[in-house]
Protein 1
Amino acid sequence: MKVDVAIVGGGIAGLSCALYTAQAELNTVVLDTGKSQLKPISMVYNYPGFDEGISGEELLSKMKKQADRFNASRIEEEVVKVEKEGGVFKVRTDNSEIEARYLVIASNLDTRPLEDMNLPVEVNPLVPSGKIKQVPGLPWNGATEIENLYVAGLLAGLPTQSIIAAGQGAAVGMAIVSKEKGKPHVWHDK
């Protein structure tokens, strides 16, 4: 399968990124194991727009539907290998191989894709558990030194707040779309 954007990780940052790239008509696929750290949260009270709170599972479900509306696709498989050959990223699962011009790694607990791309990782000091890594020194838009490779969510050094991860995922998506179009992208609703 050939796509414009492959996103490894279907949590809040990955889905936010997918929403923006898919809305801009970039062929987008999200590789998701269904293990988002937000999914088991019984009630999220600090996400704007849900004054009564919303379960993590329901919030993710709504985000998937929103990305689906713009034709983002999802593959529910674990990524086993990521590599770059020439200007193309190859993302492999046990059953699929995806070729993409842009790659976004938003897999929080799974650092294998970062290691495959030889990105340095260290403990994210903004996550008290110490179980989340980060790529040090990334800008807000998640751009790495490897062309067209971005990191989103907690792996980008964010604190563990869903709204911050969603916003940074959107910033990554906007950076990709702006780069692809050669000018700043603006999404105005009608």
Protein 2
Amino acid sequence: MDNSPTSIDSSGLDLTAAAIEEKQHLQKHFGRKEILFFTICTLVGIDTIGAIASAGAQAFSWLIILALVFFIPSALLFAELGTAFPEEGGPYIWARLAFGRLPGTINNFLYWITNPVWMGGTLTLVVVAAVETFLRNGEPLSTFWFYAVGLVFIWVGIFASILSFRVGKWIPIAGAYARFIVLGLFTFSIILYANKFGINGPSFHDFGVSWPGLVAVIALILFNFVGFENPNSAGSEMKDAQRDVPFAVFRSAIVAIVLYGVPIFGVILVLPTSQVSGLGGFIDSVKATFRVFGGTLAADGTVTLTGLGLIMGNLAAVLFILCVLSSGVAWLMGSDRALAVSGYDGAAPRWLGVFSKKYGTPVRVNVISGIVASVVLVAVRVLSEGDTAKYFGVVLNVAISTTLMSYIAIFPSLWKLRVSHPDTPRVYRAPAAKFLSVWLTLVVVFATVQVLAPGLGDEWFGADYLPDGWTQDEKWRYLLIELIPLALFIGIAIIFWAVGKRELKRK
């Protein structure tokens, strides 16, 4: 098939014949409301609330600080990129236009692979924890039911990703509303809990910030503060990107800060830091506060919900699973499209860059994401030998590292595209573009280093930076577990680029 460049679009992008062919299958069902809810589900992933809260009161302080110095500046940056270059494949297209196909391919593969790894690892483990905590009253799932619950969760998400936005958009919309309900119930229960039992929360001094505190939480917080660009992966499916993207970006930023800040603050108030785990911290806090509706507290601290408390707990479990599912679906919908675009753009094998004529979605990439997620689920279960809490942090950090590394090429593209494409119309221009690009890139580089070598710059793998379940003697094992997948992903990306380059030259 002829994949050679044939025309230049309004963004200065040299379109291939394959791109022109595949873009005819895209369907414009992505309006202002859908983009807003999609962005909320992309930004607000409640699977990491417990992990942030487990770092204590200082983590909340850093959450607010990083919201001001990182989250809001990134919103300004993506408001410009998303309106000036509203092309299908968003973040891949920006990196490719700015730095070429090879950097764009490596960046894009890391951007994509994060999500099936995250879906099959951390998201599925959180869903299992919610089922065990609420629906089974703390009773662990057997191996059979662990796989059954996990695989059903993964493939429901994949099926939703395959559907056109006209249908699939309802998962992110429902997930956004589920977040509002869970937040409301949890906030209400905290008020009742404080009135009935009192709160032995941290002191004002505990909220003070320190360098070790920043080193410990920056990567995790930044992982929650990225995603404004994800809806632009479906840029050509938007009804009016230049009008709707800024609307969604700035409103979702405000919503995300509230939806992160309130539950994290609530977890810190309700549970002692020593009792908050990365895997189940938010779930345990919800269960603890729901005791005000009906339940008992054993001498060992175990909460058993009864009556209305049990009903509320089961409702929370269902809403929690919907929240997690919508996060996974929103990210898969975006990142799968970005990978498919690189396929028809000559930066990956052409067979990846196929959009369904019926659904307007990259079904092949969707299915591959499901397979990868399923393999990760099985691998986590086998490697952890049932100790999912220990490997929750490892899988989460693999996802964090690949995510953050992908922004090392995305953030500088604002400045580079200002220089290389000065005539491209910009209905919104971010202030201090050069500063934003440099500052955000430096922050994300620093955070990436902290994922791969926790505590580096203070005390690598020191006691204050140990992931759950790990000891100081295991730092090299941990480092290899992080670096080997990363090296593998970069190697595959280079192979994709080489194959795409060869196909691009065919006439």
Protein 3
Amino acid sequence: MKIGIEGQRLFRLKKHGMDMVALELIRNLQIIDQENEYFIFVKPDSDSGCLQPTDNFHIIELNGGPYPWWEQVALPRAALKYGCELLHCTSNTAPVKTSVPLIVTLHDIIYLESISLLKKGGTWYQKIGNMYRRFVVPRVVANSTRIITVSHFEKNRIREFFGFPPADPRLVAIYNGVGEHFKPVSDEQERERIRNKYKLPEDYFFFLGNTDPKKNTKGVLKAFSDYLKSGNSPVKLVMLDYERSALDLLLTEIGDRELINHIHLTGYVVNTDLPAIYSMSRLFLYPSLRESFGIPMLEAMRCGVPVITSDTSSMPEVSGNAALIVNPYNSEEITSGMIRLMKEPDLRNDLIQKGFGQSEKFSWNSMAKEVLQLYQELASIKDVAPKK
């Protein structure tokens, strides 16, 4: 079977969540499948060494234009040119029109929910991207042979939103994984190398926030401000890939501009440096308002770090009983969680041990095997056109 996989952004230097999921899927398919023939469609960029071709995996670089043109024109043309019998689009969107049977990984439908396109918060780039998704995704869903999503919570949201029958086989939940390189880093030389590279403080909480309102950055900053004001052990807050100007605006909104003196911005961090940053932190903050999965929780758990996360969306499903669960809309609960994990060693150790066990339930290899099984099921079906 000839299978096309869309990986438009795989070669960009600064990869984020969906890019890493697609990359890990392909890398693990290369390990477990030597029979099917794959065509990986990417856009040329500076990190072409992140993925290597093999005898049955061909990397096809498609030039040209902005994201919509590449996806809606260049990609379906290439899938036809290379004789693909199946096209898997990995990052929420796909060609609206293609004669090749289509699988789409729909990570979430947050942009289709009651979030206004012009809502305060988020960048204009994010808002324009959401406008594109709002136009494309309903049409893609109607034309897809199978829709993969990443948690049972998100599967139910998609089913309810689009009116799928309860047991419709077109909608499949396949969990994400977590990289094997995420493990406690105890080597002092490696810890010192990362500390010097990113100028990390000695004692810190770790937070992966961004300008997307769902990440609850404002709520985390308010909770951290209250933590420091409560007179507990002073620590810094380490944040990745966040602009100082955006941070200043949020600190003004919460009424504590002096908090900037207790925050350390690292800039972009390459994925292979993350285990050491997790390992050196006192706790990991992930009280998002809405997530379809939450890979960073599992990364932190594998590194032996206690996690604070939310009681909303997919996060209880993924974290199990291995995280401290809070109401993300209540900054006082987040603050209380910080204090508890700093003052209650038994709770801290219990969550660390449970975190090791919970995170072991998820792997990229298992995810790739489930996706491959889906490909094989479709290959055995004579007519894989979507239901009308």
